[in-house]
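sry for the spam today, last one i promise. struct tokens for design, 316 residues
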């Protein structure tokens, strides 16, 4: 059986100084490459502006070409995606690729046969407190809480700095009901179950991400509930939770805050959790993120100089 041939496209976005970024948009510095074994991947979504650190037009164009997702390279402000041979010849694809080339430098290279499996040698286990995150081809450790996440072409396995910050912080929270917004490959949900949280729900706007998470749940023998939907939409029902993890960037976090306010501005205590983790933020976004939740106090923060996580606790 002949294996499909793929072409790799790497879009290196121009820095903000060259005029391609929105005014006031900051581009992130790299996370520690030694700790980022996930190949952290972006997921397609109807709202590209949720990715505050990427060019929204580039995100939308790549999503139209490769709906399964793309790979983000923070350290080079680059987005990578793959197209099967022949798919780039369609008129719509030609137009999209031409426009991507105008947004930055678009590099094209033919992948060698077997490239789909070659990346595995770069993905190694990672220790986050009591949690041991590993690809399935590494053995578990008896002294740590085991989490298996299969890294595929579309989704990473929790190595991004913002995810690690959430994984570190939930280990400091008493177990209870947990809701993970922007659940991606499911790593936070799996960690929560290993730590004793129950029940655990994950919601993601992308159905491909939810399918990926369901597959990873089977690998772990765990049963969180994964749902497809936009948690920032006022009509979307959310389960009551003691802890909510929102690793979804500033713009959707602000929309999330607005949907839970009553018309008179009072806190809707029936919906808000005791603990709220806000992540996917840049360090300079701390003030607007915290100000959006006036009924909460910031009790902890984690940042690596670029990415920020805030732990808010509901005021009594």
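last one done:
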């Amino acid at each position: 059986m002949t294996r499909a041939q793929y072409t790799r496209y790497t879009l290196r976005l121009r820095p903000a100084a060259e005029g391609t970024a929105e005014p006031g948009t900051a581009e992130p510095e790299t996370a520690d490459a030694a700790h980022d074994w996930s190949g952290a991947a972006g997921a397609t979504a109807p709202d590209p502006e949720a990715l505050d650190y990427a060019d929204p037009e580039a995100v939308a164009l790549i999503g139209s070409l490769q709906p399964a997702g793309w790979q983000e390279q923070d350290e080079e402000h680059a987005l990578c995606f793959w197209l099967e041979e022949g798919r780039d010849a369609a008129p719509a694809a030609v137009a999209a690729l031409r426009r991507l080339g105008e947004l930055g430098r678009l590099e094209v290279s033919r992948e060698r046969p077997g490239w789909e499996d070659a990346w595995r040698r770069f993905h190694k286990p990672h220790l986050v407190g009591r949690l041991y995150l590993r690809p399935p081809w590494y053995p578990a450790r008896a002294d740590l809480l085991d989490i298996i996440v299969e890294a595929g072409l579309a989704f990473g396995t929790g190595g991004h700095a913002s995810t690690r910050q959430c994984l570190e912080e939930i280990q400091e929270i008493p177990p209870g009901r947990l809701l993970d917004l922007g659940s991606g490959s499911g790593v936070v949900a799996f960690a929560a179950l290993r730590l004793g949280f129950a029940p655990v729900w994950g919601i993601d706007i992308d159905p491909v991400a939810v399918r990926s998470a369901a597959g990873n749940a089977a690998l772990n023998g765990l049963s969180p509930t994964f749902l497809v939907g936009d948690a920032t939409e006022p009509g979307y029902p959310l389960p009551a939770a003691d802890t909510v993890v929102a690793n979804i960037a500033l713009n959707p976090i602000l929309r999330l805050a607005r949907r839970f306010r009553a018309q008179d501005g009072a806190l809707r205590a029936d919906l808000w959790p005791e603990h709220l983790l806000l992540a996917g933020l840049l360090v300079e976004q701390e003030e607007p993120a915290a100000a959006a939740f006036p009924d909460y106090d910031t009790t902890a923060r984690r940042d690596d100089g670029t990415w920020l996580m805030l732990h808010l606790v509901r005021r009594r």
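Helices lie at 56-65, 91-103, 115-118, 161-170, 187-194, 207-220, 250-259, 286-291. ok im logging off now
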